[in-house]
## 1
Amino acid sequence: MTSAPWPAPFAATPLDATVTIPASKSLTNRYLVLAAVADGVCRLRAPLASRDSDLMIQALRALGAGIQEVPGSGPVPDLVVTPIPAGHCVDASVDCGLAGTVMRFVPPLAALLSGEVSFDGDPAARVRPMAPIVAALAGLGVKVSDGADGLMPFTVHGTGTVRGGHVAIDAAGSSQFISAILLVAARFTQGLHLEHTGESVPSVDHISMTVQVLRSLGVTVDDSTPKHWIVAPGPIAAFDVVLEQDLSNAGPFLAAALASRGTVRIPNWPLNTTQVGDKWREILPQFGATVSLDDGVLTVTGGPEILGVDIADTSELAPSAAALCALATGPSRLRGIAHLRGHETDRLAALVAEINALGGNAVETPDGLIINPAPLHGGVFHSYEDHRMATAGAIIGLAVPGVTVEDIATTAKTMPAFPQMWADMVAQTTVTEA
Ligand SMILES: O=C(O)C1=C[C@@H](OP(=O)(O)O)[C@@H](O)[C@H](O)C1
Ligand SMILES: C=C(OP(=O)(O)O)C(=O)O
């Protein structure tokens, strides 16, 4: 079900706003999976509450984890997770929605249980690549039925243990294939030696996040040889963590400073983080912004114009970056993002179609986008059920009058409050100037 067309707020004057961002999807869903296989009861403080995290919670409950909401110190309840009992028997169906983290991370966990777990999701999820997960499970001695086409739906037939050992996959389509197997590998009888056989793995920061989270819980991971990850069998310590805010989802708000030639501040920016969104601090100056991090507050001020850029490996930051490229005064190139064709939608095709529909000049390359300057006009920016397409439309709408985002509610995938947060950000400026 899609929401009513959303007239994107236009910033008639430079923004001057402070914004607080909800918790990281990638960290929340990693910690949820790890809590389900940890050595004791775990607590996630200030986690993300969104469609993707809800889908993960439902999936883990279906597999036998106990997950309780308890009051926390902020607006979102904490989650207390009782792990899945050893040798648990299960017969379950998992709805993955459109969540890559659910459709990739949960099947290897299901393989550790006794019984059948079927996986399916939204129609758009049924075309997202899954073959390396199916191949990895088969290589680890786990039976999977109906996944021969490398797509959902399929069923994992667990026997209560996974042998583990060496397995080779081509993870060029998504870093999540690697993260998925690593997350539960310490529970495999022989541990894991995972090898990537393809050219290069995308979104390497997300793999580093997985490795660092595992190490923080006492899991031994050797990633010293490129394209190889070795996980020793052993315990996964119970934990109590406070989730960082989602620095990728901070992107549209920071981009708003550039789109309006104003200033946006985000407090509580983590000083040491594994999130790819920390790269905004390197990326936004290339677009002409001034960026500073003082006392944990990230402040971004837009320059007099948005400069064209040539940037590689922006991963999930690419749609927000592409929106800025569409507003830039010079030509831009985004490289190393071919795998975005397998995200919530084919993001390269979608960005080209929507930017060009507003009068822009964007073309696909084999591994990314070229976006040349062109005067934009109002019109409908389609979302393709993709939260980051919807927020890209919002960024452009700040600078171009008359942009309407079709289905802004799709931002609920990772940030259900986005429309209100965006309106509040624009309203802060109005209040300041009144
Ligand atoms: O592991 C994760 O949490 C993610 C990994 C990345 O996937 P890809 O490697 O498919 O880009 C990223 O784009 C996605 O939003 C989240
Ligand atoms: C690619 C993304 O999501 P997913 O976790 O569904 O892969 C994303 O959030 O940009």
## 2
Amino acid sequence: MADALPYTDADPTVTELLATHPNLKMDGVCGLMMDGVSLTAIANAVGTPTWVISADTLRTRMARLKNAMQAAGLDVSLHYAVKANDHLAILSLLGKEGFGADIVSGGELARALKAGIAANKIVFSGVGKSDAELQEAIAHGVGQINVESAEELDIIAAIAQKLGRTATITLRINPDVDAKTHAKITTGLAANKFGIPYEEAASLYARASTLPGINAVGFATHIGSQILSVAPYRAAYARMAELVQSVRSQGLSVSVMDCGGGLGISYRTEVEGQPEALAGAMKAELGHLGLKLAIEPGRWPIGPAGVLLGQVILNKARGAEAPFYVLDTAMNDLLRPSMYDAWHGIVPLSAQDAATPAIPAHVVGPVCESGDTFARDRLLPPLQRGARVAILDTGAYGAVMSSTYNSRPMAAEVLIDNGTWHSIRPRQKRDALWHTETVPAHLTAGNT
Ligand SMILES: Cc1ncc(COP(=O)(O)O)c(C=O)c1O
Ligand SMILES: N[C@@H](CCCC[NH3+])C(=O)O
């Protein structure tokens, strides 16, 4: 991993994008294929917008993370960050492979348990856990709760005692390290809401070690997301190592270090974060301490496993200006471009379209917001009404961040596993948009 963000201004071509996405191939006849399955065939069968996830990609990337840790000689448990993509099929797949889960809410706890992930393989993170969520987690016997504040520690101790249980905890420490990522997804700076201030960590750990209802086993840190450089990880882990040593010198026992998630992927021309480099940083800074380590990857394993299929509703020409390609998918489906100005590759499904010389265009959705823009001045072939595209790297923080804004139903979801595709969520029906809403009797139609 390079230590400077390796962005360039030049956008990758379709050929370059396909070269960095081994699960995608352009077939001269069938068009864009994922794991040997025609994405056009899927769009024909279920319509658009549709999320498509490659199970093989997810398995391969989780295996690479695991192997990287093992090759470094580290004892590391992998807890997939459920927030990245919480579909039951995904969690079931990961549960079957023996992975644990990192959760941040009662909803994610329920999903992970429903998918068959054992409670003792679940880590409960999250800056604000309600009493009800903590009770549920402790009653189910989750493996570890990452405590975010002194206040929360006392709340957990009280709930555990009331339930007659002992809660195994780590303290999540804010190491005040800049992860050099987007400001909205950096979490390890003192100004961020996450974690316990580094300076308070040792004394709070000493207190936690004496609290009834609490089994304090160590520390956790998570400095942000889409991290491309290894340097911030090393800086954070070095600080955590110092903390472990200082706490141990007080005679306290520390056996666990949860190293968080955050490894970044290549959306545009970035060099993606390398699991082997992450393992190297963990080994260099923490390897000598005899700790049981954990990581919580979300984006890295599943981001590149997914695409979002959309169709051009209109090619809105504007004379000499770049045209607007208005898709049938929008910011209510994929929020990342509107929220973070995120860059996602856009590839036509038709080989013929993909081979046509590109012109600059703006790719937008139909939602009534100018921010509903997937790409500005993107070099793309002229795309006519009805042309279909795949928006790349949408497996993480895609479907999970969707809404029904503008009364747009939730998109369909498909999983490709071992060369066969499965519908894993039908497109939401129109009347499901309001099926939980009630209208007071005096407002119903016909009432004057
Ligand atoms: C505590 C915690 N762990 C893990 C993750 C997963 O991060 P990522 O998807 O970047 O790997 C997050 C999200 O940033 C998080 O807040
Ligand atoms: N939602 C963010 C990542 C947040 C990570 C969770 N702490 C994204 O799409 O990049």
